[in-house]
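Late entry, zinc ion complex.
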Amino acid sequence: MSSGSDIEALRRIGWRDGDSAARVARVVAQHRAGYEVHDGHAVIAAQPDGRFLKRRIDPAERPAVGDFVVLDEAEPPTIERILPRRSTLTRAAAGERYARQIIATNIDYVLVLTGLDGDFNPRRIERYLLLIEGSGAQPVVLLTKADRTEDVEAKCAALRERLPDTTPVHAINARDPATIEQLSGYLRPGDTVVLVGSSGAGKSTLTNTLLGESRMATGAVRASDSRGRHTTTHRALLPLPGGACLIDTPGMRELKLTGEESLDLFADIEELALRCRFADCAHETEPGCAVQAAIASGELDAERWRNYVKLKAEREEQAATLEARLKQQGRAKTPGRRSGQRGRGRDDV
Ligand SMILES: Nc1nc2c(ncn2[C@@H]2O[C@H](COP(=O)(O)OP(=O)(O)OP(=O)(O)O)[C@@H](O)[C@H]2O)c(=O)[nH]1
Ligand SMILES: [Zn+2]
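Prediction complete; structure with ligand written out below:
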């Protein structure tokens, strides 16, 4: 095996840097048994270096889907180190052990899909934006099924009004190849995108449209396991014809706040609340409540206000959980019953 990387091949899977003398590949899947990495040509199995398996390591320091990693020359190779990340998407972990979990790294654009039909839900979009904020990736809101919706322009305008100016909103027909042109600004060579959105929003449809001629190969993009759940296969990283690539990771499907999100999305509301007569105003029935006044005058959308209250409460709850877990992990770091154990537990990898 010769050393060094095929840079042209790596560029098709999101590599932005120059030549590398090292053997570089991109992590496309993570299993209990190890990793799958893509070198621009093929997917190969790789094992993490032993230090990544130590129980006490911060999970954020382990290889994650989307990472560019340096492999050694062995077959199968070992992942020696992780190259610096340009973005990191995290969510609250499902289990007890860790508070945060990396969903994917080195993502440039998170395409947030919502159907303009019955699925249309600005609150869910705000939740996604909260999660993407601070990740280093840029969110782009895509309203699908524009071809079979009546009041597309009104819905778009209302959403643009509600979201920060920095968040692009596009109405698309996920089935129409012309959509590729519409989204070309997010699909330049070297760009990496992920698609998020609830079931039926059009993620598979858009994936196929973006793949174009190569769409016949996507039968393997997502298979279902015996219980009918979607599982990721070898096609977790899809090079797109235009030079960008798409990462399909199941972790993006259910998104729980980590407690570290900022509420900048609602900065105007937080500012408004400072203008209430009472500093401890609950914004319910208090006299001189600036929030209720703004709702009454139509300046503030009541539904958006309720979503803010809900997300803020959820975020605070998660923040408390996060703090408790971090404290617990801090304690776990002091020598205890488990110290000296080097074996790989079921929480590892
Ligand atoms: N007319 C039209 N139909 C669409 C559009 N986007 C999605 N659909 C249809 O909506 C249905 C659901 O789309 P999918 O692409 O399977 O949705 P998904 O987000 O992948 O859903 P899951 O796989 O359950 O997560 C399919 O029948 C699509 O053909 C669109 O922009 N226009
Ligand atoms: Zn108030």
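Residues 216-234, 332-349 have pLDDT under 50 and may be disordered. Will revisit in the morning.
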